Amino acid sequence: MQVHELMNAFRTTARKAHKRIVLPEGTEPRTVKAAGLITEANLAHVILVGDETAIRAVAAEQKADLKGVEIIDPVKSERYEGYVDAFHEMRRAKGVTRDQAAATVADPVYFGTMMVQMGDADGLVSGAEHSTADTIRPALQIIKTAPGIKIVSSAFIMVVPDCEFGDNGLFIFADCAVNPNPNAEEMAAIALSSAENARILCNMEPKVAMLSFSTKGSAEHELVDKVRQATAIAKAAAPELMIDGEFQVDAAIVPKVGAKKAPGSPVAGKANVLIFPDLQAGNAGYKLVERLAKAAAIGPFLQGLRKPVNDLSRGCSVEDIVNVVTITAVQAAGAK
Fold first, then answer.
1. How far apart are CA 310 and CA 318, in angstroms?
2. How many whole angstroms separate alpha carbon 252 and alpha carbon 144?
3. Residue 140 CB burial class (10 angstroms; 0-12, 13-18, ≥19)
4. pLDDT tens string 177-219
5. Which domains does the chain have, with CATH numbers?
6. Before 246, cis peptide (omega within 30)?
7. pTM score
8. What is the H or E stretch that residue 90 is in?
9. Contact indicator for 105, 84 with CB cutoff of 8 Å
10. What is the pLDDT of residues 5-16, one digit of tens each?
11. What is the pLDDT of residues 74-86, one digit of tens each?
């Protein structure tokens, strides 16, 4: 698998789905330029949120064509009062007054998240000028996690050239960007979310390996116990899913090693979804593969929410924004 093949497949799916993706950082220059390119390529119906005069001024500076891009100013929108009422109802038990709700929904990220929640958009992409927390917090308050999932996590699609492991070099790695030290229940939830994205984004049958420094009892430690517990929880929650552990990485992905260390396992030596026990392992793991194997790391994208919301790096390029919007559209197309 080559990264351009995967991105072309994403673009084909996105064009067919034509989902509505809201970009709440409407006056951010890279975002405005990306909005024009996304629309020109027919990858999504883009909604920019912010002051229209300011957005069009940025578009002129960036030489961005916003023909076909929808622009919404939150407080001038006919949806604003309804969103305020709905948000107030959601948060009044937390002590939020209607005036506080009105001020909150005027914020473009909150307004955009309300658009997704109320069915007026299919997904949201933010983070070019906001922190990850500023993107995730509204999503947790408004959209909330998917049924049976208690945690928002992140994953990378790893495309490793000239590789016979995984799905011809295609893998999902998780969690590599959000949760520093998930407990057993949280690790199990990350596994379930990652398996779902393997199906939706990569069109592959997930074979999920729960990673450790031990394979099937080769070591005893409380860190290994966590992975074993997580594996049991995930299996109980999704008995139809091919998931197993605990595995060292070689036992998870190398057929000969898997057959020797974990004979009879449906996953050992065949894994294409790798669940790391903590963020230190996940972050180091994906960067090692990216740099040493010259792999493409696509992401991170968020998972575990009822509707797709994705976070950008504040150092992102215009191309990064286009790609994340494309992936978000694919997630929306595949959502149950």
1. 15
2. 32
3. middle
4. 999 999 999 999 999 999 999 999 999 999 999 999 999 999 9
5. 3-144+306-334 (3.40.50.10950), 153-297 (3.40.50.10750)
6. yes
7. 0.90
8. helix 80-91
9. yes
10. 899 999 999 999
11. 999 999 999 999 9
